[in-house]
Amino acid sequence: MIFFDPDDKQERAEAYRLFAYLFMNIPDIELVEEFERFAGIQIKDTYEEICEDFIYLFTEGNLPNCESFYRQSDVQHFYWTAGVAIEEEFDLPPDHISMELLFMSYLIEQNLRNLEIDFLSRLCEWIPLFCEELYETANTDFYKEVATFVKDFVLSDCGAGW
């Protein structure tokens, strides 16, 4: 269940940013708590279990987290069209899920509607597949909840006519 107003541009942008950070680095405890509040759930996993699962899933390569694994990716074209350059400090491929979710947040905040609609349709093609694999591969309820929530959120956003 999604506990936000889909017509609130700021809430949508913040949701995409939150999701991006969940996949970017080992989440700190504040980020875990922010997700719990946003999703309206309470996780029973320990913080250590969540950290270990992040390492297992994303650092050890047990879960492909780039669009190019799921479909042909030309995401650089979208970044270029929006005038966005990926900073080297991110140290992530341009089609990494976190980069694409951050970019979606940016498009919403900048009110770049046409690009937002086109980019969202891309996300709808591969993020549900990623989330299904995440759900199956995760060892913690935390990442299973993240998988379910992100998948439902993106699919709901796609169906909202953006």
UniProtKB/TrEMBL annotation:
Coiled coil: none
Superkingdom of the source species: Bacteria
Record's keyword terms, sorted: Chaperone
Keyword Oxidoreductase: no
Annotated InterPro entries: DMSO/NO3_reduct_chaperone, TorD-like_sf, TorD/DmsD_chaperones
Pfam families: Nitrate_red_del
Protein name per its UniProtKB record: Uncharacterized protein
Organism expressing this protein natively: Thermodesulfovibrio aggregans
Upper lineage: Bacteria, Pseudomonadati, Nitrospirota, Thermodesulfovibrionia, Thermodesulfovibrionales
